[in-house]
Amino acid sequence: MGCFRLEKLALVVPNSDILYTAAKISPDGRFIAIGEDANVLVHDLEKARTTTYPTAHTRPIANLTWSPDSQCIATACDDFTITITHLVYGELHRLTGHTAPVTALVYTPKGNLLCSCSVDESIKVWDTLEGRLLRTMSAHSESVVSIDIPTCDASVLASGSYDGLIRVFDTASGHCLKTLTYDKDWQSENGVVPISQVKFSVNGKYLLVASLDGIIKIWDYLQGRVVRTFRSGVSSTLKYSCGMDFLYPADPTKPPVVVTGTEDGHIYCWDAQDKTLYQELLATNDNSPLMCIDCREQYMCSLSLRGDCRLYKWVDDN
Amino acid sequence: MVPLPEWCPPLDTTKYDPNTCEELFCICKKPDSGELMVGCDGCDDWFHFKCLRIPLEYKELVFSFYCPYCQAGVTGPGAITGKLPKTVWRRKCRVSDCYRSCDENSKYCSKEHGIEYLRGISRRLDCGRYGSREVIHKMTSGRSFKQFREIGSLGLAPASRDLDPDTYDAIFGSGVFKDDLDVKMSRLIEAQRLITEGTLPTLDRYIAWIKVVNELLFSNGGAEEKGDGRTRKKARAPRGICGFSVDKKIPRDAADFVRQFHEEKETVEDLHGVCCKVRCSKHLDWTGIEQRTLQYEQESVQTSLQRIDLLKKQRNEELTLQFHEMLLRKHKICNKVGGGAIQDTTR
Amino acid sequence: MANLQLQDPFSVLKEYPEKLTQILVSPIYTCCIRFSPRGDYLAAGCSNGAIVIYDIDTAKPITMLGSEGGCHIRSVQSLSWSRCGRYLLSSGRDWWIKVWDLQSRSRPLKEHKFDSPIWECHWSSRAPWECISTVLEKSYAYVVDFVGEEAIVQELKSTLDNDDAESLDHGYTLVSCSHPRFSDLVLTGTSKGWFKIYQLRQDGVTLRHCSKFANSNTKHLVISQSGDRIAINSSDRTIRQFSLFISDDMEHINIEIEHKYQDVINKLQWNSIFFSNNSAEYLIASTHGSSAHDIYLWETSSGTLVRVLEGTEEELLDIDWNFYNMCIAANGIETGNIYIWSIVIPPKWSALAPDFEEVDENIEYKEKEDEFDESDVLEQQQELDEAEETEIDLRALEKFDVRGNDLTMKSFIIPIEYSDIVMLKMWDGAGAA
């Protein structure tokens, strides 16, 4: 067992009318990047200093991701474009091609490809060296809101869409390899349950999936079946896509932890193996929804819609 | 011909439903149900926006439309001429959720939307301590279009330490990357110096020495003495010993060397580390290789230095931008004290 | 690689690629090509001495080695990747062999200069930083040890045997390769058609085998991954395939000819040869001459030609075969372009709709015994509950892919050179202005 302890508050919020949706820890653990309107704030954890990187976006940044070498930040924006900003040299590329807001991004482990998904129902793969569109996968019938690629295996890409489907693609060919329905009766009279986030396990064999009915599941996507189900909160139809992630305790004998944020600003932590609830904590001052949860090594970064960004550290009990 | 889009079925020429005799349209081959359609300029068939996956909002933006079959050259003018037509769209109004086409010579559908768009931009303009109204006024107070265009061409104001020493030092003081480039630069300059002052003159001197040796050995008609036809033909090609040595040290005076070479009955292959073979395939073109290596090194140092210079410039620009942005942000936070801002503290 | 687990197993497990799928465009003539160990990069050595690395995902060059100098200035003769994928060994006609660290590649990490052009150089399987090199007009190969600051070079020549072991003139040593299983055995081939096996021991070198197989130059020498089959391409337009038996104590070495491959009609030379993986079920070769543009693929057990890889319009020079991505690459002699053949796996349309199944032919529908039975809700629930209780492993990585390739060796990621992107942007900007 173990629990999260608050390490620090990472963000000074000057504008309370801005909505925040993305905060990510850099792979080297030195920075937290936060999307603030059309800017990216990069908070240096060691020096406790925040640097502003302006982008050429004309609308708020919806999501962002670090390149695997921690040198670049890619931003997904409501203005249909993606920018790649280097921490030293500034903007490297502005990628245009989506025909609706871009919702999420993921780099391949090599950092040579960037994948993006959009409200335009497509997934696009870009060459990060030349800023060139390589291919487009159109296989959803609603906004695609989340994509992920395992850090150990760039051959597959998972996507989650408001059409209620989770699809697994071959990254190289763009072919769909597998479709996971949200449930046996996914198309009930109430319509489908939109998927809000997908995340691979560290070995790339399982998929953590959050949907807008507030239920989190772990899928064995190779076999196509649900192996764990977690329920958080009371609401059965969420308004916000709250964040979630896996955390792997430093002790390899300890089971991984499923961390999820709720609409009222709480964080739930479950044992991914036996589903016990380890911890429930309040991560905001004003109970605003937790839009983003990002775990890296023993750290977890949470961000509320109102811009409350906190860094927690996982501490194993003995 | 180009392939049809994945979602488009192959051409079906059925025009009427055999059962109901209704006229059929589109790639879906269904009768008109009142749903929004567009006529193709190539084959005169009508197509549903939905079936062709064109957002309904684009209905006012069609200028000349060609269906997938015409665009692929299956039907229409492309099938005859081979020149494939493409759908042409009107330019859309810049206001993002307006899908009307632009007025002539304008980027907006109407004057109202032009004003709305620019108002949006001015709202987003972050003018720090100045009001946006003031900044816009300054921008537009110039007399001519040319003056207007020149605004901003000078780049950012240089970051000055006087404005805010703390911020300045935080950004420019801790230049980890910067030192990195400086170190590289001095290393390259040192490498350059070593070549121009050391290796290159040594090589040149050695090659000159070998030339002298070969002149002494062969210019006094040594080869012609035999007088057969074959050597005469080759007389023009410079003859000589290979002359390759590992360390390019001149062993002794050329005349001395030649004397010794003759003493050794000219069959020796190696004298004082100098290769004395006459036709040496092993060391073929060694002078070429040595010279090209040094030349290449010098060229690479030059391009690398230029490159580092440019990179430093680019990085400085980026840091200056960050400096100004940080000042702005500081300013904003100061103005909002007590406005729910939390302090940046470590607990 | 999870994608292979979700694709049609019959396609995935095909033993050799069949279709030309990618062309890497090269502006310079290429001399030799090598895939990185995991097949995600390809290094190409060029006639002007440049070494270019391509990213297979994007089919574009990502870097040139030696941006601050130190690259070859004559054609690159051979390339060899270290097992970890981080160090690349190159040899050139400019007499140099160089070790490149791909982590910081602006200059070579280590280098050594011989006194004549190098034929080829490859990492030895015995020790890290050790490589075997063959050099123009030298009777013996060289063992080059890069472990220290200065390279230590030693002739690969018997020191422990009595004098007459190598008293015969065997010609110059032209090619060499390391034995994959007995890592201190080095196989060499000479200009007079001799095949020799040396053993590198703590106390010196001994000649374990020496036999003559032909009267001409050895051009290539390849050994199967399992180490029990070799093939020698020589100037007499023949590829000879031998079985190689080495007893565990290395006391008994036996080689026996299995097949000879010749182009009986055109009498063509073979430019390059390569074995398939494991015990080498297949042998491939590129053909010499402007009229031949193909790669021949033979089955080694029967010696029959089973396939010709087509699609290029020029003569092919060097070939390489990677078993992780199951791709064969070959470079064209005229353009320098690199052609890649791979296994094409057709899309599975049923993957788009769950609960759908693809069938090869129509099946007459027959109602199953229990098809419309009211299913036992309790039983179904039990099944679901069971799945929720079975232990899952979210951490442990797969050790082998479905083709049997070792996945425990992490692939090295070549860092992206961002300053290149910045420079390109500046040039574009300057061009536009």
Automatic annotation (TrEMBL), chain A:
Record flagged with keyword Repeat: yes
Annotated keywords: Repeat, WD repeat
Gene3D superfamilies associated with the record: YVTN repeat-like/Quinoprotein amine dehydrogenase
SMART domains registered for this protein in UniProt: WD40
WD repeat start and end residues: 95-136, 137-179, 195-229
Domain of life: Eukaryota
Pfam families (UniProt xref): WD40
PANTHER family listed in its UniProt record: F-BOX AND WD REPEAT DOMAIN CONTAINING 7, WD40 REPEAT PROTEIN
Protein name: LAMI_0E08174g1_1
From TrEMBL, chain B:
Entries under InterPro entries matching the protein: Spp1/CFP1, Zinc_finger_PHD-type_CS, Znf_FYVE_PHD, Znf_PHD, Znf_PHD-finger, Znf_RING/FYVE/PHD
Keyword Ion transport (UniProt): no
One Gene Ontology CC term in the entry: Set1C/COMPASS complex
Keywords in alphabetical order: Metal-binding, Nucleus, Zinc, Zinc-finger
Recorded superkingdom: Eukaryota
Transmembrane segments: none
Residues annotated as domain PHD-type: 23-73
Keyword Transferase on entry: no
UniProt-recorded name of the protein: LAMI_0H05974g1_1
Molecular-function GO terms, alphabetical: zinc ion binding
GO biological process, one term: positive regulation of DNA-templated transcription
Location(s) in or outside the cell: Nucleus
Principal location class: nucleus
UniProtKB/TrEMBL annotation, chain C:
WD repeat residue intervals: 72-110
Highest taxon in the source lineage: Eukaryota
Gene Ontology annotations for the cellular component aspect, listed alphabetically: Set1C/COMPASS complex
Protein name as annotated: LAMI_0D05974g1_1
Record's keyword annotation contains Disulfide bond: no
Native organism: Lachancea mirantina
PROSITE patterns (alphabetical): WD_REPEATS_1, WD_REPEATS_2, WD_REPEATS_REGION
Keywords from the named record: Nucleus, Repeat, WD repeat
Pfam families in alphabetical order: WD40
Keyword Oxidoreductase applies: no
Coiled coil: none
Intracellular or extracellular location(s): Nucleus
